[in-house]
Write a structure and sequence with these properties.
alpha+beta; binds FE2/S2 (inorganic) cluster; five-stranded antiparallel sheet; flat; 290 residues; 7 helices; Glutaredoxin; disordered C terminus
Length: 290
């Protein structure tokens, strides 16, 4: 098996590209993962030294996020969604189809390093499940009988079952984790989707803010402009509970905000304006008391 060469100069460049920007560690690790298909130990050491973080922190991040791998991955990375919505539509059969076709189990890489196979909890496109993703390209309504065809086309860069950009848009319908009242506002829409309405306070200002309900979209409308880098406090407009989850942002250590997703699960996002850390877990049954 061929070893994977890590070039320290390349890693220096990747780190320096972010110019010490606050909360850039995840982006640096993503770039390294994209360059080597895994996070070499030597690269993690360089990032730790260069950013003043500990190697332990690096490993904590590398093992927390499923997108990162400490072992070399295959040229193509296939993931099958095992979240609740996909699971009930028979994603275990799809996974079995991939395992048989590639002769590996989830979490493994083929001997020729062509394919790695993994599972994920939710890809944010539940209505189109079962969903699989190969090299960042989504495949919808996958059946086990489709697997051979999908693998063949992934290798040939032809994705006949690929989602259109429009289908990848995924709107969440959320409620307050404490009083369970809907946070959606029908009167205000963004790209045709109802927005999420909460109240925020920062720097002695207290006012409304409307958030895009499209997962991964950071557009907001607000009574007062929230300056970049400011940590805001978010509240339910009905019961006035503060919407903190108890978790800290993995990128910038600011508190994470939590909302319940109607139908089950949670969506969390960082309370710092400008930080793009967010997570959606539709398989998550945890009900965090506020
Ligand atoms: S995309 Fe599979 S459960 Fe959401």
């Amino acid at each position: 098996m061929m070893g994977v060469r890590m070039n320290p100069e390349d890693v220096f460049r990747l780190v320096d590209k972010y110019n010490g920007r606050h909360g850039s560690i995840i982006s640096i690790l993503e770039d390294i993962q994209a360059t080597y298909n895994f996070l070499p130990r030597g690269a993690l050491k360089i990032v730790a030294n260069r950013t003043g973080r500990s190697l332990v922190d690096m490993y904590a991040l590398a093992t927390f996020y499923r997108n990162f791998s400490l072992k070399p991955k295959g040229r193509h990375v296939a993931s099958v969604c095992m979240g609740t919505a996909c699971h009930v539509r028979r994603s275990p059969d799809v996974l079995e189809g991939f395992e048989q076709a590639l002769a590996i189990r989830a979490g493994e890489t083929t001997r020729d390093r062509e394919f790695s196979l993994s599972t994920v909890n939710c890809l944010g496109a539940c209505a189109l499940g079962p969903v699989a993703v190969i090299d960042g390209e989504y495949y919808r309504n996958v059946k086990s009988a489709d697997v051979e065809k999908i693998l063949k086309h992934a290798c040939r860069d032809e994705n006949i079952l690929k989602m259109t950009a429009e289908e990848e848009v995924f709107a969440v319908n959320v409620s307050c984790p404490r009083c369970n009242r809907s946070l959606m506002t029908r009167e205000h829409r963004l790209d045709g989707y109802p927005m999420v309405r909460v109240t925020v306070s920062f720097h002695r200002k207290h006012g409304w803010v409307r958030l895009s309900s499209l997962y991964g979209d950071y557009r907001i409308e607000s009574e007062y402009e929230i300056p970049p880098g400011v940590i805001a406090h978010f509240f339910c407009p009905s019961c006035h509970a503060e919407l903190r989850s108890g978790r800290l942002c993995a990128s910038c250590d600011a508190p994470m905000i939590i909302l319940f997703v109607r139908g089950g699960g949670t969506v969390q996002f960082c309370s710092r304006r400008g930080c793009k850390e967010h997570m959606l877990d539709l398989a998550d049954e945890e009900h965090l008391a506020l």
